[in-house]
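Hi there,

I know you've been waiting on this one. I reran it after we fixed the sequence typo, so this is the corrected version. Both the input and the resulting structure follow.
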Amino acid sequence: MSYQAPLSSSFNNSKNRSTRLSPQSGMCSFCTEECLGTCELALAAVLGAQTVYPTTTGANQIASEKDYPIDYSHFNINGRVFGAQGVIANYDEATIFNVGLGCTYGKHHTVKMALPIVLPAIIKLNWQDYFAGAAMAGVTCMVGEDAKSKDPALLMEKGIIQEFPLIKKIIAAFKQYDRGYGQIVFQNNVEDDLAKLPEYALMHGVNALEFKFGQGAKGTQPVNRIKDLETALKKQQMGVLVHPNPSILAVQEAYKRGECPNFYSYGRLPLWNEDYFIPRINHLRELGAQNIYFKIAGYDRRDLERVLRLASAAEVDMVTFDGAGGGSGYSPCKMMNEWSLPTVCLEDAVVTIAKQIKKEGMCIPAITITGGLASEDQVFKALAYGDGLVTSIGLCRASMAASMSGKKIGDQIAENKTPEQFKKYGSTIEEIFADLPDLRALYGKQANGFSPGAIGVFSYLNKIAFGIQHFAALNRKFNVSLLDKSDLIPLTVEARNLLSGQWFDGW
């Protein structure tokens, strides 16, 4: 069998015409010159290099379509029937409502979270409600890399940010609902760091920064086609890397003759190391940074170890490890499917490395695991697999889906077009959004006026939390910090090999 997806994908609305496919190539088993061109090969014949990236980006989310040979579904959840850990073992105390979900992290500045969940970096689609819902739920959220490009009023000189007024709106999306839990964190890629976004953000009310080494769907930085020479020169003047170099006279002359290749902007790859980062982080703390975060994907295990050791030496507060299976819409199609460690394998590698570093007496930062996770059983399993070293689980695309769905359903209710499946619950937002009473308990009656998109994020995370409480109580563990691998049952040979430390043998 092949785990590879065929040459048809929602990435680009392509379809295989044949009912039988060649498993290895993904092509139709019968390919004819009469075909109108519906598959990825036909698309590439017309659009060329552009089809390395999805053509369906925009108001969409896009993620891996690969069916990996191992994931968290290869484990079931254990259960116990005697005793109680974390509470007094009596009928009044040992209930799902007393399962403690809160956690804290932070080396120099403590951050409390109401749930062991983080909303990873994004700055597209309904980001306002995504950040607002995070604050309502009491969890940390990250603002995606290159947020500055979303601001039409952005002003840069010699590659350095001078004006970025949108930052106030981004911060306010979270802080107006901040109830003392979680943080809003500005993510920085190499371009952001070179543009001095960390310094600018710290001067404008941000107190937490994340540095991105890569994510599970995108190990490199994005490439974007530029339509003409004028735009290419403007991009370059802003400090963007443009290929071919539009400042070269021969390139300009070729453009005038109509013989110039496509212009592309390209995000620089991170070449950070210990010599750069430790002084850099110390400097940012002097400027007011309270918390520093790292994010890295499922790279080579030596790189994972190096980043974790660097985070320990630099006293970084949290490192997010992002496994294969996720996505956003700015990642190459095949990179989303074919690169990086599957999330459960990445977590195994990270936990093994963290245990070794801890044995050496080094301080372990808070660890977040993310990558294609969306339901409470997956969150429970990922926390349990962490053996007490994983602080939280990242839920990005799923939380954004809740944000978009909540907003859309709220708009329909306001237009008296309530979706049929929700009419049995009522006709107003107050009647239909079932967890609004929980929000009113936190914010008072003003919660009735909250954006339905933000309510959607809160409600989705409330569902995740309630589900975790059920699984934890099932194991008679009444605090998520007590979860460990004994709470998991391996169902397959791959799962047993992973648990026993044999999965990576020979690689």
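Quick highlight: Residues 375 and 464 are 6 Å apart (CA to CA).

Best,
R. S.
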